[in-house]
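Hello forum,

I keep getting stuck at the same step: I have a sequence, I want structure tokens, and every attempt I make locally crashes halfway through. Rather than fight my setup again tonight, could one of you with a working pipeline run this one for me? It's a single chain of 195 residues.
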Amino acid sequence: MRAVLLVAGLVSSTAALAADSVTTPLDLDTCEVVEIATEDEAGEPLAKEDQYPVYWRCAGLGDRFVYIGYDDERESLALGSKEEAATHPMRHGHFGSWGPTVEWRGMKTETGQLEPQAAIVKYGWHIPKGNDDGSDDVGGELGVLRIGKGDADTCLMAWVDTVANTDAVEVARKAADEATAGYACPKLADEDADA
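Reply #2:
Ran it on my machine without issues. Output:
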């Protein structure tokens, strides 16, 4: 069974790119903390020892950086420069986290540098249910991202279920390579623009 969900847009039926790829780590322990929570959810100040990171800047590919935000046991992901995130935060609805790597896919330039047009990042979860019967909620999906020049043309294109697909990485690569050329990112709704 193939479980691939294209989020929105048009998938081209033309030939896929002959893509190259480069993988970079996405490990919050090695990323720079750029924001710390100083208040709890009710707006009350947190004691210094109770404050915790909620936003990280992680080295990506070349001059691209990956930004991870944390809220309510969920992580969002955005792309940008060293100075700031340049894209809308991309989210999964489930409790969980992104990583541990980013696979950048695209074409190499004449100088041998990869010019990414897509990225594949796993969003995984393991939520204990408190039982010893193996009933924990464990799973993950590979997020397939289209990479454009900015917010309007960089977005989440598809999710590939890593449990339902034993070849999830290959399915995600095919989705990335085939969909990038013909995929149009949906326009953000006004209420989403500030999220």
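The radius of gyration is 18 Å. If your local run keeps crashing, start a new thread with the error log.
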